[in-house]
Fold this protein.
Amino acid sequence: MDDKGFIALHRRLIDWRWYKDNNTKAVFIHCLLRANWQDVAYKGVDLKRGQFITSLEKMQEDLGLSQKEVRTALKHLVSTGEVASKATNKYRIITVLNYDKWQVTGKQEASQGQTEGKPGATDNKEKEFKPLEEYSTQKAPSGVAKGASAKKNQFNQFQQSDYGNIEELEKKLLSN
């Protein structure tokens, strides 16, 4: 298994029937993390995208669950069509069914309300971040107490000054 990269975890998971069952949710997310993102051959076994080789013991060890908890969670996932599980005398092949539903390939689908062909909310370009110093002189956003911006400026002045100890700053801030 290639342990580099990431998986997508869609927000629809919150509405998923097993979301509040922590063991089943953990096993499913584990399956998404372990599943191959492309077809591979592993130890002479051809695995398709969305499949991986494991054992109940390995899943138990990886997840910190008992074998019964892993087995029950897998039964839940098999019964509702999220995964298929095939055991042999040496290993178990788990297939995340509808893997492409959970892990989109290529370009991300347009969000609801987003016009096709228009730039999305994210563009996968590297973002330039302002240095922290640029934020320290900005005004407080609306809704923040008016004095908060003044206190922030006093704090920034303290950082730049040669106050000998914190008590001097505390006196100065409390005197305003």
